[in-house]
Amino acid sequence: MTGAGDLMGGVATSAVRRGAATIVMDGAGKTRGGRAQNRVVMAMAVIFGIYAAIGGRLVHLAMQEEPEASLPVARVTASRPDLVDRNGEVLATDIKTASLFAEPRRIVDIDEAIEKLSTVLPDLNYQQTYRRLDSDAGFVWLRRQLSPRQQADILALGVPGLGFRTEKRRFYPGGPTASHILGLVNIDNKGIAGIEKFVDDQGLADLQATGLAVEGHLEPVRLSVDLRVQHIIRDELVQAMERYKAIAAGAVVLKADTGEVVGMASVPDYDPNNPVNALDKDRLNRMSAGVFEMGSTFKLFTTAMALDSGLVSINDSFDATRPIRIGGFTINDFHGKRRVLSVPEIFIYSSNIGTAKMADVVGIDGHRAFLDKIGLLGRMSTELPEIAHPTEPKEWKKINSITISYGHGVATTPLQTAMAAAAMLNGGKLIPPTFLPRSEAEANEIATQVISEKTSAQMRYLFRLNSEKGSGRRAEVEGYYVGGKTGTAEKVVNGRYSSSVRFNAFIAGFPVDDPEYVVLVFIDEPKPEREGIGATAGLNAAPMVRNIIRRSAPLLGVKPEFGQESDALLISQQ
């Protein structure tokens, strides 16, 4: 019995141990399963957190404004001051315009985008535009300074990735009227020519670079130009070019006592609002950037030089019976009188022989020194950047002095010729020309006395005499006492002077008894107005001066006078 009980007890004990083991094993399984479940939950939480962060960032970016181009705002949209004439009329101003840009990364179909743009911008370069759009750039310009209509039409295309930026564009209300004075700006509104460049050089460029050139903070720049006179000058030049079938023409009206340029033009010119042909050779500003042999207008300076030297008197005479032969050359008169001529006769008959003999009295060194003193051999100083340097012989010999005395051998700009002419008429004061307002007191501070007041009075007398009895008769305007000097210069063709190709000029002062204004005009290669007449300066340049004075004098406040000549012109020849 005992054995059986012990056996059953052992079996029971064994069963209890197996149950305990089973319990232990089940507990361990449950523990491992819980840990695995926790790891899954943690992994899911991490993944959810990552996606939540990404989603939050996307929402944040979507709520922000898209960044614009990284283009310096101040450089592109910098303002410029208005340019106004002496009466406050606007000559140049800024206007707002739209410029088209693209974000290449947002362009879905480049070919389609270009095809649509070409319907509004037919001159769009396909290959160039494709290269710009086929990139990872965030910003590229496609077209600057569009019209409002172009902007509206491009918006209507609905092409994603295109946008507009507001910029400043320079606008010139008068178009080509004063183009050579005002000059030009580039696509970024920076001055590159004329007064526009001058303004930049005076400090505007520095203000733009620092972002201080802000609209509304810039005072207008007032010029000495009168827009009304400027329009008259250009109108007369355009008509004269057509009338005389010339290749170019130019003119300036200069205030005699201050040097202020009241109006100046050179044609052909260009429209600064659309300067596609501004750099063409024939669009050169011939008044200040071109040099020409000014022909017989130089006899004005030779005569003044001789009289002011004290070696020649206005009562003297010179033998103009025979031509001058020197160095294989023959110096003759165009309309020779073949007799002895007084100084006034030499001037009004424009005698090359008589003028050459007056220069010979002064001498070669004295001749060159005088032209240098009156500003005809050095580079003129004024606000315009486009100023040419005169040309002269490397070595002055007697033949050079003779030909230069009547305007061949030295080439100067028409503007500086007008400046020197003003000094011959205004009492002998050489005043640099300016395109900015200048008072008479300010002018006197910088003026140089180059001839005596007596010589200047004698030159005014000769000027008036020439308009009454000489080659300047067609410049006469009743009531304004115009005086002047013609210049018909033969141009060099294939290394030789041609008698059929001319550069004609006329210098005038009015009222010549006490000149307020000096007018210089030129016309390049004019043809006869009709068959049977010539094409000299007295027949074309003089009438151009007459028309400019007739139309502009009342606007300038010069009152006409009728009756006796001023006592200032009654110069005694004793």
Alpha carbon gyration radius: 42 Å
Major sheet size, sense and barrel closure:
5 strands, mixed
Average pLDDT for all residues = 87
Q: Which stretches are low in confidence, meaning pLDDT under 50 for 5 or more residues running?
A: 1-30, 66-75, 570-574
Write down the overall geometry. elongated
Beta percentage is 15-25%
Number of helices: 18
**Span of the ends, CA to CA:** 185 Å
Would you count the extended β strands for me? Answer: 18
Structural class: alpha+beta
Fraction of residues in H or I helices? 40-55%
Plain-language structure description:
The chain is of the alpha+beta class. Helices cover 41% and strands 18% of the residues. The protein is built from 18 helices and 18 strands. The protein has helices spanning 2-63, 73-77, 110-120, 126-133, 148-157, 179-182, 194-209, 227-244, 286-289, 299-309, 343-348, 352-362, 364-373, 398-405, 414-425, 440-446, 453-469, 537-552; strands spanning 83-84, 90-102, 140-146, 162-171, 184-185, 191-193, 221-222, 248-255, 261-267, 317-319, 324-326, 329-331, 340-342, 429-430, 448-449, 483-493, 496-510, 517-524. Strands 1, 2, 3, 4 and 7 form a 5-stranded mixed beta sheet that branches. Strands 9-8-18-17-16 form a 5-stranded antiparallel beta sheet, sandwiched between helices. Strands 5-6 form a two-stranded antiparallel ribbon. Helix 10 (299-309) crosses helix 17 (453-469). It is elongated. Mean pLDDT is 87; it is low at 1-30, 66-75 and 570-574.
